[in-house]
Amino acid sequence: MTETRTPPHADVVSAPFFQRGELVEGHDTVHRSRDLGVAFATPRVTMDGLVHPRDEVPPLLNVPLTEIIDFLVETGERIRDPRNPFIRDCLDRMSTTHVLPRRVLEAQVVSAAAYLDARLLRTVVEQNFPDPAALDGWIPKQDFTGRKSFVRAFASRLIHVLPGNSPGVAVKSIAQGALVKAVNLFKMSSSDPFTTVAILRTMAGIDPGHPIVKSMSAAYWRGGDDTVERVLYRPQYFDKIVAWGGGDAINNVIKYLGPGFQLVSFDPKTSISMVGREALASDGTLDLAASLAASDVMVLNQEACVASRFVYLEADQAGADRFCERLHAHIVGKAAESGDARPLDRDLREQIDTLAMLDDEFRVWGRTDGTGLVIRSDEPVDFHPINKVVNVVRVDSLDRAVPHVNVATQTIGFYPFDRTADYRDRLAACGAQRVVRLGEAGPSTIGNPHDAMYPLHRFVHWMAHEDGTVPG
């Protein structure tokens, strides 16, 4: 990505900032979006507007958790309201910079608002904290020696480095930042420098002075911009950085880590499927397993980390080809429903075209036009399948698939369901973080660990006040 200080042309889309409750507009810097290379303009980054003073108590600290949840629920209702001017304007602007078509983006924003549900938010808190009351105040404790103390899950100062693949992450990150009563700065992605501000403007429309609004800021700068990051990424201003995204995004952060400034990382992950030979027992089971596998491939049009990219199939070559044919048909159908048919980029097209000529080792179903493509092989391909491309890897036994699992494997969709328990310990030992029934890679069980951790538990600053020993 590049940036300039030249005033933009009138047709360059504007991406405003939100700083501690105030909208900041300007056209001081022109950037280009990651995927499409489309220009957009932002205000100048001003450090004072993005940093909440250390000597001030966080705005949300003494706001009851119940009130925070009520405010988030009302925000969700307003996000879903088709008359919401901030969301409409956001979608208009994002459609120019994001690789996904507007219809898909609209559906993602609306579905993301479902996270702002009272019962869901309470469950998330309860699963992350053994005693959620620690968020609202100091919890008295006494150990077996008689020593008294008080413990609190204190509000941290967080920088969230957001990904650009899904607007839903913005909704979730804002909600989680509010639930832990943090002071939050959201670094937006060049693919989507709009959604976070639209949500915060929606909140300000409810109550511009609400502590949630005052504890939130959102801005864009080019990742790795040392003139910004060497100032902001300091323990004087922030406690933790919550980083999503690829290797470059994480590497930009690591060099700033040190005592008092911690990383909570949602690293790049790859998800897979493991399908046993039971899928080939009949035409019915074959079609069912292929349909379920296609659902996992097509999560967010394969833009999400949970979307499957490799299917390890226990079958001979003839059985694998039958499965691939059905899998391709289901992916094509789902791709047509999504309205997203972007051609594969040139490098990926060239690699797949080369594989298609190697008939003894590979077979390809589909075309490189973005309508869905399946590659069958005996070893995983050495590139990252994306844009509705999946690699079916034929194995004689699912035991042969286990060594391909590692710490970068997020979700594994498994079929048949009754064999999952036989593999889950080995998959965990290899580093996998989640195993589900095939076809259920999408929404996870509410409150479960994410990327092998309970995130909210790590977002807070755990503070102890020790108060001496009770006389015997």
Give a brief outline of the structure.
By secondary structure, the protein is α/β, with parallel strands linked by helices. It has helices at 47-50, 65-80, 85-97, 102-112, 118-128, 168-179, 195-206, 211-214, 226-232, 247-254, 283-297, 317-338, 346-356, 420-430, 455-459; strands at 3-4, 13-14, 17-19, 22-24, 29-32, 39-42, 139-142, 147-154, 157-161, 183-187, 216-219, 240-244, 262-266, 270-275, 308-314, 363-366, 373-377, 389-395, 409-415, 434-437, 461-469.
What does this structure look like?
The chain is α/β, with parallel strands linked by helices. It is 34% helix and 22% strand. The chain has helices at 47-50, 65-80, 85-97, 102-112, 118-128, 168-179, 195-206, 211-214, 226-232, 247-254, 283-297, 317-338, 346-356, 420-430, 455-459; strands at residues 3-4, 13-14, 17-19, 22-24, 29-32, 39-42, 139-142, 147-154, 157-161, 183-187, 216-219, 240-244, 262-266, 270-275, 308-314, 363-366, 373-377, 389-395, 409-415, 434-437, 461-469. A hairpin with a 4-residue loop joins strand 7 (139-142) and strand 8. Helix 2 packs across helix 7, helix 3 packs antiparallel against helix 7 and helix 11 packs across helix 12 (317-338). 43% of the residues are buried.
